[in-house]
Amino acid sequence: MNNPITRWFKETARVWSRELRLIFTDAGMLLFFFALPLAYPLVYTLIYNPEVVTDIPVTVVDNSRTSASRELTRSIDATSAIKIVGYATSLNEARRWQAEKRCYGILVIPEDYDREIGRGEQTHVDFYSDMSLLLRFRTFLSALTDVQLATGAKIRTQKMEAAGLPASEAPISSEAFFLGDSEQGFASFIIPGIVVLIIQQSMILGIAMLVGTSRERRRRNGGIDPLEIQATPSATMAGKLLAYLVPYLPMAIYALHYVPLIFSLPHSGSMTQYLPFFLPMLIASAGFGLVISQIFIKEREMSLMVVVFTSVGFLFLSGLTWPRYAMHPLWQWIGNCIPAVWGVEGFIRINSNGATLAQNSHPYLMLWLLSAIYWSIYWVMLRHKRKKLF
């Protein structure tokens, strides 16, 4: 009984040793298994710093030219988000400035602005925003809403005091708490999810390159890969998985733990919670990479095409740019088959909101389910391959 078990462990060790040797002696593998997950989180985070957009240039078309309109303009200019860069004589002139990128927003104050406020009527102010960058529009909307509420509260207070009535500037005070992103920064919002996608994509890219290189060796040697270890499917699977976990466990610790610390990103979760959660994510990603590589990768260079083709799609399916519950059921089903989709959901909950592993039971179990499915498919592929050879 011990002989088959001993043989299995020896075969697993040989496959593991062979895979590690291929990884550490190939410049392309070192690039994708180490350099890419080391550099990309730093590059992405540096691009998105500073996290918030400030002093966005805005042009004013003041048709009222009263003290009230000038006070409104000063209040808007006093916000950290908006900087008034000039006054245009007409809307057409302001649009020309916007076309020349001298400003990204136009504030139009109507001629009867002060008169309507004096009569106690509701007035309006038009704002035209450049929609080429959604982040600017969101910043405009937030700043203008704050100014609108403050100006309205001030006008009501003045009218009530003029009528001899007691009044406070804000009868109901409000305070916002942004859970998971206290700075309302773009990097704090997107980087925790991006690092999960980077880890999955770099692992798939490396595995696909290994598979493509093996098939090129077979074509050069009459259908035989001289570096392949003859082992049972289970020993082959175990050896490959152990070889992929060796570089990616430290890479995961670096990307998930130290990158948020370096850039002061949200980092409420505990390592004892998100590392056990991420283990099935790595296992599922390795199985996913092996399955799609066996199907699509015929040459070493094809790995780049597959990853480039899927990266943008995986980003959208993850729910970072559009909520998953608002997607068509077909896209939700496709997203359910991608390990990083569940990895992004669970890691953000743990990292940004301090959730526990128990509170992430659904994505955690889904990752283990995907691990079982993809490695079972790969086992069937290996069995079929052995039947063809023998």
Short description:
This protein is elongated. The protein has helices at 2-24, 27-47, 67-77, 91-99, 113-118, 134-162, 186-220, 233-262, 271-296, 302-317, 329-336, 339-353, 361-389, and strands at residues 56-62, 82-87, 105-109, 126-129.
Describe the structure.
It contains 13 helices and four strands. The chain is mainly alpha-helical. The protein has two domains: 253 residues, no CATH class; 107 residues, abc type-2 transporter like fold, CATH 3.40.1710.10. A four-stranded mixed β-sheet has the order 2-1-3-4, sandwiched between helices. Helix 12 packs antiparallel against helix 13. The longest helix has 35 residues. The protein starts with a helix and ends with a helix. The model has no long low-confidence stretch (mean pLDDT 87).
What global shape is seen?
elongated
Order of helices and strands: HHEHEHEHEHHHHHHHH
Class by SSE composition: mainly alpha
So how many helices? 13
Radius of gyration: 29 Å
Task: Fill in the keyword field for this structure.
mainly alpha, abc type-2 transporter like fold, 2 domains, four-stranded mixed beta sheet, 4 strands, 66% helix
Which secondary structure elements does this structure contain, and how are they paired or packed?
Blueprint: H1 2-24, H2 27-47, E1 56-62, H3 67-77, E2 82-87, H4 91-99, E3 105-109, H5 113-118, E4 126-129, H6 134-162, H7 186-220, H8 233-262, H9 271-296, H10 302-317, H11 329-336, H12 339-353, H13 361-389
Parallel strand pairs: 1-2, 1-3
Antiparallel strand pairs: 3-4
